[in-house]
Write the structure tokens for this entry.
Amino acid sequence: MSQPAFADIGACVFDAYGTLFNVHSAADREAAALGDKAKALSASWRQKQLEYTWLRSLMGRHTDFWQVTGDALDYAMDLHGVADAALRERLMRLYRTLDAYPDVRPSLERLRAGGVKTAILSNGEPTMLADAVGHAGIADLLDDVQSVESVGIFKPDARVYQLSVERLDVAAERIAFVSTNAWDAAGAGYFGFKVAWMNRFGLPDERLGNRPAAVMKGLDELPGLLGL
């Protein structure tokens, strides 16, 4: 009989933005200033942020995620006709302290109690990640916080996923990778991780040629997949 997909897992590695941290919480906190443009601007900000990571990687023109985030916000504000330098400053500052989803800390606590290594693997640059982790109060529940700045290219390049193998000293097939971003989940799966796509928002499957080992609605399902 074959083993379950998540048997013999040595580490759980998490995407940060959109998976552990709510990328729309910055705009939510400025909803009064943004008015009826808040949700649309936040969606455009996020979409352009991702597009710039992919395009810069393809073009070989890397810059860090903080710069990308600011460039994407400038585009979104221009697109939605919001010209307010002070508001831009506040939104960027808030992006450093995004809200963690409510299921994050309890789930990490269960994994740690079960003896599983935990880490973040993110497009974020190191100071952004440190601020977000500190604000969420989860630093004590992580063995490592890994940034693409170590390799100078964004996900889903295989060199990014290799970081977790090297820094955690765990073979790829023994790493459970969790992301809300289906494109990231696909990249991690092609690399060789055991992938749990956390489909928080009920989205359809991507058509990228592979399937995750599991699909979850929330992070609280992960310990059960590992038998914890």
Remarks:
- Residues 25-95 form a domain with the DNA polymerase; domain 1 fold (CATH 1.10.150.240).
